[in-house]
Amino acid sequence: MSARTHRPCLLRGPRRRPPGEAGAWLAPARAAAALSLAVLAAAQLAGCGQGRRPGRPEPAGRGEPVGPPAQITAGPGGGSLTSDDGGLTLVVPPDAVPAPTEFTVQRIASTAPGASSAWRVGPTGVDFSAPVSLVFRPALGRGIAGLAVDYQDATGYWVPASSNVTADAVARTLTVAATRLDASDWALVPASGARDLQGSFSLTQGVEIPFVAQGSAMLSFAGEDAVGSWYLVAGTATVPASIASGTSTCTPADVTVPLDTNVAEVDAAGTRFDWGIAARWSLTCVDGAGSTTTPWLATLFDSFGLNLPACARGYVGTPLVAPDRLQGTYAIDCGARGSVAATWDFAACPAAEGRSCPPSSACRSGASISCATGAPVCNDGPAAPDGTPCGTGRACSGGLCLPAP
């Protein structure tokens, strides 16, 4: 029972009208949000009509707080705070925030698969001028080998922190550097290993407002049965800073946005990879007469056939579908309305493909990329002496490259 077999069932249920049909592109925000959720529903309902397939990934509930939160008010001078169990330290470097800002860390009951420890951090949705560090440390006596960091997204799925992760075996820490905390709940989890895939994709969409998006995605192995294997897809997508729409010029509020997490599937025969790209951008468009509109731009790509169901669709050429590599192009042809095409290349831990350690590793010697956890992780060496220059106006402090005092 492949994803293609499920398609008639996928078009029923929550889908009242095809997202992306006339008017949907310039609809209010709720229509754009529904569009992304519809792509997710396509994967989630893959077993409809015959019950849910056991082992398929499901969203989890939010963990309940355990104990009081640790909190500080940090300003341009920075600061740090640690959870009551010592498992998570939040480091705010100097000049990360321009004004006093409240930061919190609180232990919560874990709902992440396989995890015993989880924490809630704040604030979310704040852009930091310098990366803050989330420093995770397992319980006393436990090393970091075989561990990874997951966060819970807005839909309830736990997905890996797949970039800017640094491991220090001597200090027994895994550190995530973040210029923005969009997720509040984090956990130390067993690493899923070589079954995870990551890489890049491109989307060329010519239906309604034409645009091209480039993106990166992490495919986290989430289970399998006799029919196929499941992956959770998370990542980001980026559009140009200026997008033409008829006589209007449109500017995205953010050119890079996170993907809504999707459930993708590889069939057991190794012939199909089914997935969707779920992202949306808020635009400000000005036409030749100076009139301004604020539409939403949303992706319309999925290989299940949920979006643009009346259009011809299929792979371009023969896709590569293997346990350690997914590569292909899929096109949707809507005739006079336009077309949609996506190209992707996902591989098992592509550490040798131009990846490098985060900027903070300029204050460490011998930093190198490792695939031990499935995702590329930077293994740190010894810290450089404090005060060592690491960039214009920056110096090493405690192994981190921070603004010089």
Would you mind describing this structure in some detail?
The structure is a single chain. The chain has 2 helices and 31 strands. A hairpin with a 2-residue loop joins strand 30 and strand 31. Strands 12, 13, 14, 17, 18, 19, 23, 24, 25 and 26 form a 10-stranded antiparallel sheet that branches. The termini are far apart. With 405 residues, the chain is mostly beta strands. It is 6% helix and 42% strand. The longest helix is centred in the N-terminal third of the chain and has 16 residues, at 29-44. It is globular.
Radius of gyration: 22 Å
Average of the residue pLDDT scores: 80
Share of helix, binned: under 10%
Large-scale geometry: globular
Could you give the count of β-strands? Answer: 31
Structural class: mainly beta
Q: Beta fraction of the residues?
A: 35-45%
- Give the termini separation: 62 Å
Enumerate how many helices there are, as a single number.
Answer: 2
**Biggest pleated-sheet summary:** 10 strands, antiparallel
Low-confidence stretches: 1-51, 351-355
List the helices and strands and how they pair.
Elements: H1 3-10, H2 29-44, E1 70-74, E2 79-82, E3 88-92, E4 101-108, E5 117-122, E6 127-136, E7 147-152, E8 158-160, E9 165-168, E10 173-180, E11 185-190, E12 197-205, E13 211-224, E14 228-238, E15 243-245, E16 248-252, E17 256-258, E18 262-267, E19 273-274, E20 280-286, E21 292-293, E22 296-298, E23 312-315, E24 320-322, E25 325-333, E26 339-347, E27 368-370, E28 377-379, E29 389-391, E30 394-397, E31 400-403
Parallel strand pairs: 9-28
Antiparallel strand pairs: 1-4, 2-3, 3-6, 4-5, 5-11, 6-10, 7-8, 7-11, 9-10, 12-13, 12-26, 13-14, 14-17, 14-18, 15-16, 16-20, 18-19, 20-21, 20-22, 23-25, 24-25, 25-26, 27-28, 29-30, 30-31
